[in-house]
Specification:
Metal_Hydrolase; 13% strand; TIM Barrel; two-stranded antiparallel ribbon; seven-stranded parallel β-sheet; 17 helices; alpha/beta; 2 domains
């Protein structure tokens, strides 16, 4: 059951609808093209796009990596995709396609009006995986995905009668985004999340790129329609220092940092804003090491408690930021280490530049609050509404950002799904059995939807969580219901999210 929803433009031309500020709809062809199973579209429809993959079953590399990343049992050799979906998708499926275009369409019908599709690249992951069908060079990976995204738009257009007639529209400017949303369609913004943007890695602090490479790279990105970039992602690079992952994931990513830069992360104790603590910590050993870390030693050892990456914004990083400002591009602050992020924000604040965002609040709260002061927009990772760990609760994050020093300046709120981004989607709420989302439900844009039946399987957010992107329509309604007395305020913030994002983009280009 789906009822048509009202239009997407309010008085004065404001966009009405939700924004996913962090999605990876093209990840099927990223990382060399063989890391993941499934695609968001295919000529043969769902039967082709979502069939099972032998290399992701049993004891094959894809299955074992899936089990490591998702903390799940390896999928059996008789894994089934379409039409039964007996083993996937699940909310913690991380190497199987979770954003088939029909699911994206359902989320659009539930109120989604802007999605920021981040072309994602990581040379180290690509080279570590034993199978690949395309180059591991990160710029090559981005070019492949840019073409693939256009192919996806063409595929959807063909279903709706020809070029320009589909609901899925790639936009290059905020004016185009307003026009698309005004037609009630989905404005598809293009960004890049890459660890070695323009080949700008460093090897033992020697940059592997020049200012000419940055200029050429920025020009190419604009030619591809890219409007926002991550200067830093996962590893230290020639632009600045990264924010650490924590726990076992942090240890694995630190190995990647060693592979790409020749050194481990370097950190020191810090007060106030901090990067994530590390599992291998010994104050006694750390005090004997230069810079507070193992440096050239076999294993990195860090001080206990709050620590910060010692690497800040480099001269090349400053050149990149200035180039992005000159072009009116949006700077993604997440994944920068505290020192790097502070130095970037110092530059932006000095010129009053609004084109900066936290697209899935993967940063220290001080950094997020300073970002809000400039852009008046923020998007939180799309966790379940509630969780015993407040870091894994969407509502806790929303309330904390609203209560922050500049929270009153937020004009609209987004979510970052990070779908297909090697991270889990929202699990069922822990209290879903006691206070379930009742079907059929009314989405925040007024559409009425029942449970999502896809193939022969019927999905229910109360038991499946966000198993695939179509369940975001349910998630929108579920988090508003779970907000209790704050529900109307949250609904208003979310439905103003697309407008807030577009307005921030307009300010960057002014």
């Amino acid at each position: 059951m789906v009822s048509e929803a009202p239009g997407s433009v309010a008085g004065g031309g404001a966009v009405v609808g939700l924004v996913d500020a962090h999605a990876h709809l093209t990840a099927a062809v990223a990382f060399g093209g063989e890391l993941r199973c499934g695609e968001p579209f295919a000529a043969g429809g769902a039967a082709e796009a979502l069939r099972g993959c032998d290399e992701h079953a049993g004891a094959q590399p894809g299955a074992l990596l899936e089990a490591i990343l998702g903390g799940t049992d390896p999928m059996s050799a008789d894994q089934q995709g379409w039409p039964d979906f007996t083993q996937w998708p699940r909310n913690n499926t991380q190497l199987h396609e979770q954003a088939y275009y029909r699911g994206v369409e359902r989320a659009w019908r539930g109120g989604l009006r802007v999605v920021n599709v981040l072309l994602v690249a990581n040379r180290v992951i690509c080279e570590l995986y034993p199978e690949r069908g395309s180059s591991c060079d990160e710029m090559d990976q981005i070019r492949v995905q840019a073409r693939y995204l256009r192919d996806m738009q063409d595929y959807i257009d063909a279903e709706h009668g020809g070029a320009g007639r589909g609901w899925f529209r790639i936009v290059r400017t905020p004016a185009e985004a307003r026009a698309v949303a005004g037609q009630g369609k989905l404005a598809v913004v293009v960004g890049v999340e890459s660890s070695e943007l323009f080949g700008c890695r460093h090897i033992r602090d020697v940059a592997q790129c020049t200012t000419a490479d940055i200029d050429a790279g920025l020009d190419e990105m604009q030619a591809l329609g890219v409007s926002n970039l991550y200067p830093v992602h996962k590893f230290d690079n020639a632009f600045g220092g990264t924010r650490f992952d924590e726990g076992a994931t942090g240890a694995a990513v630190n190995i990647g940092n060693l592979l790409t830069t020749g050194t481990w992360w370097a950190a020191q104790r810090c007060d106030g804003a901090a990067d994530n603590e590390q599992a291998l910590a010994s104050d006694l050993i750390a005090e004997l090491l230069p810079g507070g870390t193992a440096g050239e030693t076999v294993l990195p050892v860090y001080p206990s408690g709050p620590i910060c990456n010692v690497r800040g914004l480099t001269d090349l990083g400053r050149y990149l930021i200035q180039g992005m400002i000159a072009r009116g591009m949006i700077i993604n602050i997440d994944h920068m280490g505290v020192r790097t992020a502070r130095e970037v924000l110092d530059i932006l604040e000095s010129v009053g530049y609004a084109g900066v965002m936290s697209s899935h609040t993967w940063s220290d709260r001080e950094i997020i609050d300073r970002t809000i002061a400039l852009s008046r927009f923020v998007a939180s990772y799309a966790h379940a509404a509630h969780d015993p760990d407040p870091k894994l609760s969407f509502l806790a994050e929303w309330r904390a950002n609203r209560a922050a020093g500049h929270g009153g300046q937020i004009t609209g709120y987004g979510f970052g799904s990070d779908v297909n981004g090697l991270g889990p989607q929202a699990p069922p709420r822990p209290d879903a059995a006691q206070t379930p989302l009742r079907y059929p439900f009314t989405a925040p844009n007024g559409a009425v939807l029942d449970r999502h039946r896809f193939g022969t399987r019927t999905f229910d957010i109360n038991t499946d969580g966000v198993a695939q992107y179509g369940l975001y329509a349910d998630w929108f309604a579920d988090i508003i219901q779970a907000a209790g007395d704050d529900g109307p305020t949250l609904a208003r913030d979310l439905m103003n999210g697309a407008e807030s994002y577009v307005a921030m983009w307009e300010s960057a280009r002014a």
